[in-house]
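Forwarding the complex inputs:
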Amino acid sequence: MSRPVQDRQVESPALPPIARQRLVDFAAALLQAAGVSPTDSSDVARALVDADARGVGSHGVARLPVYLDRIAAGGTSATATAQVERAHGAVAVVDGNNALGLVVGRFGMRTALRLARQHGVGAVTCRRSGHFGAAAEFARMGPGQDCVAIAMTNVNVSMAPWGGITPLLGNNPVAIAAPTGGAPFVLDMALSTAARGKIRLAAARGEQIPPGWALTADGSPTLDPVAALAGLITPLGGPKGSGLAIAVDILCALLSGAATSPDVRPQSALAQAQDVGHFFLAVHVPAFLDLAAFRARIDAMLDRIRASERAAGVSEILAPGDLERRAEERADREGIRLQQSTWRALLAKAAELGVPAPTLP
Amino acid sequence: MSRPVQDRQVESPALPPIARQRLVDFAAALLQAAGVSPTDSSDVARALVDADARGVGSHGVARLPVYLDRIAAGGTSATATAQVERAHGAVAVVDGNNALGLVVGRFGMRTALRLARQHGVGAVTCRRSGHFGAAAEFARMGPGQDCVAIAMTNVNVSMAPWGGITPLLGNNPVAIAAPTGGAPFVLDMALSTAARGKIRLAAARGEQIPPGWALTADGSPTLDPVAALAGLITPLGGPKGSGLAIAVDILCALLSGAATSPDVRPQSALAQAQDVGHFFLAVHVPAFLDLAAFRARIDAMLDRIRASERAAGVSEILAPGDLERRAEERADREGIRLQQSTWRALLAKAAELGVPAPTLP
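Prediction (whole assembly, two chains):
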């Protein structure tokens, strides 16, 4: 639904496609060379390449160089493992021990899914984690285990609370996935009106941004992308998104002991632990009702939406996750087209770490 | 945060204030006269008057006449009680047996809170329920039991899925409440950009509505409130609110066995069961970490927001729930001022049911 526009789109045309598995292997080799265990390397690489395959390049292997830089600078631990610090009934608090956010996140959601299969629902919070990539990658772990799964994270600040101009809120993304009779329902959205990447794109193109996307630094609405980039992005729907961003921070940080958004350190502070917090919830459908009936009803619900009457100029109505699934099918057929700058950065990392890079066609 | 504007605001000035407890007693007497048990009558009356006291008159005693009409017409059962139909571990499915939505909702959240105190988290869905009033009234049951609580309901349709013009989505409200060191954090928001009540108000005043609030029946954006009322309200933030409304319907209807929004019967179909679905989640803070530390951190977080720098023209930055708490303090001091039309409708019901009505000053 909310697809961050990749900054690099303004730079240069994409490269020839690379096969998904080759890209996974390359990313995993880079992580292993940086000291990450083979299993974690493979899991993280697969999740990042999933995002690329699903058209969400902003959260794909383009993130890998900064993750590797953070490991090199000591801000993230290559070898740490996440662990359950406190467990009670159907809930757990995970100490991420400053491992990669994608490692901590997978551990957290796996724990929530295990609890849900046992108790019908599982709720897990994580502290001392890092940037975890696309929230959808964790929510998508649910449907294969017959669970509806919700993944949230706090992130460092980009928005002011409604009425304010001090950035105290992250655009804290929320993802939810549910099993269907076919490909799962997947919604993944940040709590800002629009992504900063889209504003950077407008700035590079010399275009205005739509009303409501951004504020100047003193809090006035602006259509000027340059003023917007020096200012603030707006919360989704004004006070509603502002309130939701606070609620997500409560669940992710206050229920885990992690830093709240204003105190989460940015990824760019390479040598510092970020102390990001996550919240994972899984509910096991068969604990509530018959799974086959659930699948039939969600299919009927989503098909009714897809087949409903379109507004003028709209060629198709999509259910959440449809676009990403199509992108993924194409990526599996044709390979993944990375941006030039992403590829150059990965090659530089490969040279640094002594990892052989694949050649592109 | 999202305060529906009460339609009656356009009609006439409000009445002299009535003391909160007198209004509760009157509302409870009406419900009892309609056959609702003394305990349920008192709980429902208190919840409705809470909404009035908190400034959310659209979900207060103004709803009582239609609830009573539905009981008289057989669409809602006065005497039914909700029951746990299926229980497993930390989850339960409740059959509302077509009782009043406020009765079913309280039973559902009470069950979720009981499960959370036992297992750390509790998730409860309800089917065969009705309109349950303000979602906040259920979420607010959490903080007193040291829980963060989330309440959601589906409602009948008012919005089209993003790109469409067929109303298939309700504006499905979501509320979340969390304990603090003082009055709880309370966020309650519908998933539409704005409430239809605000559009009706603009129509009555002959004013335009802001861009983005509504579409004409054929899906074109409109600033004309009359065309908007004949058309569609928009989901919060476009595709994001559209996806969230579907997600809430999945949790409320598909995990409970209730009707999905397009099949929920409107309250106005007085003789028909609505088959509304709800989803309640409670997490017990002490299962995760020290409650006193949680309270201290959320207080600090919200105070930092309240004290942050304001945009030009903004007199104050509020945390979710602040406005409603102030309204409630004033209502407790000065009484509740109902709209004329609400009071007239209650007096008519009192005459019908043979209930003595309080006199206003």
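The CA atoms of residues 195 and 296 of chain B lie 35 Å apart.
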